[in-house]
């Protein structure tokens, strides 16, 4: 069964889109990540223009983050004060990202910028995760306890002014690095269509010493709000949100996440990180290959619709 995507301007099999949402939802539930960094490249591989893929993944990310954030809120694992400070930078980063996205469209370089950014970001994150997980597996096989890395209290960002006390997270740090982290996550989300949880959660844990459970729940709040705002801004400023595509993805993603969460509970943490590292690195390699491979039609020219 084929449906026509009005904004992407191409026909696509509805069950293919549903299967993609199901698969990425399964991976999201199993690894505890948003999945936007996988969904956007997959849509690009199927022929969806990168600009439409990025914008249409934003509502998918917002919907998937809502249920998770609600669950953590009910369990009392949200630091609303920390989330509020993160959102101060996150919303500013989202607006800046949408404006950057609009400028890239105007000069006709948005597709190239998205592909290069994905190859670099996923390549770096995937490599770091793969190396770290292999070390953890090796230590586990030797019977050694896992290493716990905690930043020192004399880190340079600990000495910045405007310190705040976040009682739920049990930390007392400057608001400046928190706002900066939020800004970068908002910028990445608007430009690349990623929730940023795979970057934000480690940053909160290793840089600010926020407890793991609180980090995950708080990052979901940031993802929910920034992706919702990005959806509205992309629809208004760029006109690149395909509601039909986003709706089908949300249905598949919601179903797949339930099965993925059950599967992830049966695997060891270091094995999960190893598998996720391979997955992220594989997507980075595929995006990189597409950048340097010869196109099917060397002289094809595409003109993007002006906003």
SSE layout and pairings?
Blueprint: E1 2-5, E2 10-13, H1 14-31, H2 36-45, H3 50-74, H4 80-106, H5 110-141, E3 163-166, E4 171-174, H6 175-192, H7 197-206, H8 212-238, H9 243-264, H10 269-292
Antiparallel strand pairs: 1-2, 3-4
Helix pairs in contact: 1-2, 1-9, 2-3, 3-8, 3-9, 4-6, 4-8, 5-10, 6-8, 7-8
Walkthrough of the structure:
The chain is mainly α. It has one domain (2-143, 152-292). Helices cover 69% and strands 5% of the residues. The chain is built from ten helices and four strands. It has helices spanning 14-31, 36-45, 50-74, 80-106, 110-141, 175-192, 197-206, 212-238, 243-264, 269-292; strands at 2-5, 10-13, 163-166, 171-174. The strands form two sheets. The protein has a two-stranded antiparallel sheet. The chain has a two-stranded antiparallel ribbon with strand order 3-4. α4 packs across α6. The chain is globular. The two termini are 31 Å apart.
